[in-house]
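User: Can you help me understand a structure? I only have the sequence.
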Amino acid sequence: MILDLFRLDGQTAIVTGASRGLGAAMADALEEAGARVVRTSSATDDLADRAAVASLLDRAGDAEILVNNAGIIRRADLLDYSDDDWDAVIEVNLRSVFALSRDFARRLVERRRGGKIINIASMLSFQGGIRVVAYTAAKSGILGLTRALSNELAPHGINVNAIAPGYMATDNTQALRDDPVRSRDILARIPAGRWGAPDDLKGAVVFLASPASSYVHATTLTVDGGWLSR
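Assistant: Let's start by predicting it. Here is the structure, written out as tokens:
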């Protein structure tokens, strides 16, 4: 049956940044599809701490699915943007994704197992944005990282793809939604006519984590209500 291709029974998934918002919804979806999910949050795993990666993988055990969702954002005008804010965002949003993916893939290859790596990109992977220079740089880097990882890991049976959420109603967009002008302008550009909800990512993450996407590599799936088409 075709729906069986979307089942994740007997598999273990790691979802970073899964305490709330998009991460929590994606973790819920993977559990609903049958996976055991190891959820991380900044309270349990500080991905800015380079020692945290190894301890996280050790705790998760033999996982087959990795969702790199954890991220932070720091807003400031470019001329006032500090080196500390730049370093903090790049460390969590890009460098930790590289390190966690590399070490996760290394374990899969040693076990001669295939697996799935799903990175979380952004609309700012495609656009410049305003007052979020480090976030834009990191999320643009996620697209290149996804492609580079895929080129080397596909021969090992490891699929590497990304999801690019549109403008979602989460903590990261609270400042935008509280600004009546910015909120109005954003909604005017979304053909679907609404902010996205975390549950809108459930189908995408299950698809990319499941056997249904076994021949999908280096793809970034946009879930944006049509934002990029405008």
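Now, to help you interpret it: The two ends are 37 Å apart (CA to CA). Residues 129 and 136 are 7 Å apart (CA to CA). Let me know which part you'd like to focus on.
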